[in-house]
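User: Here's a chain of 431 residues. Predict its fold as tokens.
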Amino acid sequence: MTLIATLRGIGLARDINQEAAIYAAPPADMATFQLARFNAGWTDSLARSPWARAMAARLALPQSFASWDDLATRVPVQTKADLRLDLADPATANEPVSWRATGGTTAEPLRFPVFRSEAREAGIDQWLGRGRLGITPSDRLFMIWGHAHMFGTGLKGTINRLKRQLSDAVIGYTRWSAYSMSPADLRLAGDALAESGARYVIGYSSALDRFARANADRSSAFRGLNLKAVIATAEGFPREDSRAVIEACFGCPVVMEYGSVETGAIAYERPAGGYDVFWARHRIELGEATPAGRTLIVTSLNARALPLLRYAIGDVANAGGTDGVTGFDAVGGRVNDAITLPNGTPIHSEAFTHVMRDLPGVRVYQIVGRKGGGVPTIRYEAEAPLAEASLSLLKKRLALIDEVLRDTPVERVEEIPLSGAGKHRMVIEES
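Assistant: Prediction complete.
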């Protein structure tokens, strides 16, 4: 641990303990508890956010709702396309907001505002989930993760990279790029983990799978770290034996953190199986049945700059023996694919999410890989072709992933078709 991480943990302890106390004594009437929290958050959102007011006007919504049935009657299931309508208003909030962007596994970019309060609340939920695994805010972390900050250009980009490096150093984080996943790179990542002093690991699920297979012979050294847990996120496991392979490599429990950029953490998996929902912050509906499970619909209960009311997150869940509100047995989402470059290097598709997600006007994009490897093509939907400045920025970002991607073909198309599951596939492969 570092001094700064220790001080951060002390600062967070009160909020974490207060939130933990709510879950230690669940209300007898969950629906009433959640409705009261939601109405308070919705009223606060309307007072603080022009985008909340735009949503209320679009859907003709009241200041509060009489019941969850009342909400369901007034609010149809919402998608990213609906949220974009509310964001079209150029108004600004009366308080500072930060702007986040997501490409998501459906490759539909969305840039949206976030209050400082909701960012902090989302962080408390994450620490609550990690705390159930014995992890504290002062523990050192090894991350196999993407780096959106690396794609900044000029002086601002340099400053952002330096700020990230300094921030990681003072709180004890070792950050390893998940974009390049060649066996040689992953062996170097294993060296970095062994020297990191980490107490837990977080990574993209497919990146963790690749890491574990590339470093399977080093499990004894990794066990010496006495890791508390490995937390997989952003996607499902790519293979049936992924969890077992990762557990064998790291020598500790492997669990999933489930959520999205839009929602924050929604649920944490238990080591023994099944997910516990952060029901004090999110109300879950299990909607339409599909062969893979029921569609997962989220209503956020706290005040938000962009409220999420009956938001279809794009995944399915199986309730099993649970109620779906406080937990579910399993969640099914897409597994992000890798693109193989001409030199044989696999690149995690999340790299393309980070270079595409905030380009103005892009509704949907798709990465077209080549069988046997090769420079991919990027296709996108938009009302008009990308401006020259956007294309130039895109090519600079691609070159930061790998120089061979600088000349990646970029094509505007009328429509990117949906898959059989009703989603846009981020990555496809053609001859």
